[in-house]
Amino acid sequence: KEEEVEQKEEIVRTKRCADRTSQCKVLAARGTDVCSARMVAHCQATCKKCSAAPAPRPTDNGEVQGKCLTPAIANGRVGNGRSMNPGEPLNVRCNPGYTLVGGTSKCLIQDVFTNEDKDARLVPECIKLGSSTLSGNGATYTGGRNTYSAKDAYGRAVEMECDRWNKDVLRGILMGYADGKDLLLGNHNYCRNPGGIEPVPFCLASATGVGKIVYCFGHGGCDTCAGATDKYEADYCADPRNTRFCLYTDKSTANRVAAIQENCAATCCKMAGC
Question: Which candidate, 226, 236, 207, places its Cα nearest to that of 266?
């Protein structure tokens, strides 16, 4: 069998290195430089320039694949059979009123599924989205916002899509937050404020390679602006050096924004569109 394999490899190598045209030898006999950079690819055999190596033989890398037991997805139905073949994607349909999140997962073996992130812990989910109206600090917000404001390389304002909560937390890239496990909110990227731990709903971002908290809203709900007045004079509250801190962006300026919103409440509420 070993000899047969070698013979097959030699046949493949010969075909790969053959001249692409019968004119190579004719032209070479006439003195034409068929081995020039422009022609050598067509006259590999004549020029003896074939550098193609035989394809490597497949090796056993020890990874075992097999059928998977079809999982149950809360608030949804899985359309696959009782068992799934390796590489077969999960076919999930969410119940009415629920939204499918998490991307595509494929069977690896038994109850293990893989995805584009190569992380079996990230599986599809069916979640329920609520009202998009923001009230207070958004502790109960369950809307569908999943973007945050940022600046591009030219200083222009752009909207960036949030990362998925579980993906960033499980990868261990979240910096400056002691209780990362508290942010395992699901395999989705919708803005949330669990327990009202931040001034407004937030999400995770890792555009620089390091995960961090960014705010999805610059201000709390407009209900917090009822009766708002500026404590400081107009020349202070209207000063661009202060108004630039009227709206939340990320935790690095959160304390400064909180102070400006307290002292220039009416001005900041107006900037927030309330």
Answer: 226
